[in-house]
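**Protein fold record**
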Amino acid sequence: MAKSSTEQIELSGKLAGLRGAMRSRPKYEIIKEFLIEELSSGNYQPGQALPSENMLIDRLGVARNTVRNAIDELVKEGYVRRVHGKGNFFTKNPNSSKEEQLAVLSLLLPEISHGIYPVLAKGFDHCAGLKRHQVLLCNTDFNISKQGDIILQMLDKNVSGVAMVPALKPQTPAYHAAQLQRHNIPVVFCHRPVAGVSAPLITWDAAEVAKLAGRTLVENGHKRIAYFARTRYSLTAVHENALRQTLGDCGLELPAKNIFYGNGPGEGPDYQLQKRMDALKPMVGGADPITSIFCNDDEEAELVQFALKELGLRIPEDVSLIGFGDRHARNGVFLDRLTSVTIDEYELGGRAAKVLDEMRTGQRPLDSDEVIYKPLALYQGKTVAQI
């Protein structure tokens, strides 16, 4: 692992010779060559920050303008990139060839055949392919141990970057991503972050998903609204709170009796269906039956649809339904008809590949904590009735 900036400057062992060379040559040229040599020798990696101007001034005993002139030259030659408000970062290694080496970018997904994940993978693969990078697609099966094993394999293969949708239960530990970063492998999170890790996150505004769904239902006359989610975690908790706030702003309530959380992946299909039927029976019966349901994703909406049909209820005549899913994956009778808040997962996956490439080439810091929000839209299906 590369040393910190302070260690690098203090341990270089070249400072005495450097000061001597400054007596016969322009100081900024000597500093520029010194920094390039530090990069060439492996003391720095592309994407790593240079020492601060103040540190260079203090260690080398030169004026601020001299340091800035040296860095200006490095910027012009493509070795350094300035990031406003954050500092200067190395962008390439002088030992590498001008022709970009083949990179292998890895994408870790909880599943690869259902929901929004296949579209994300297609977008990632397409964008990586534009740069002639190979893609290693890995399925973690929502299993934290399997995810850890895959990360060890990525370290062994020395991949050029890892994008991941972190496993949920239990929560992904920080050391999963930190191990990659300690080996100078860029990490990008998709959908959700990992607590304690500074890495770019490409996601959407989860609160706005619930607000848009809630507003759509209220505008269509619905007052008794339920929320269904496959499992309880940070994102679905945001949904619940935002939906409750949106309804409250309209003088409505989201009582606990109208909220359902499943146990997540691993439940058998018959068990999942029965659980939703059991939850729906009291909600649709009685004096004040619900008239609509917001589901945390389209897969949950499909399960709820089956449960409603088993109970003899029609959509949207008896109960309206709104989900959340990918903008492009509206294939099949159900998804084509389902009204949903949507995100462009293809573009999200492509952006993840692009950000990884920026990090591996030094255009973006390895510890960037930028959050990139992708826009939401409403797909007007046929499952929300006006009442």
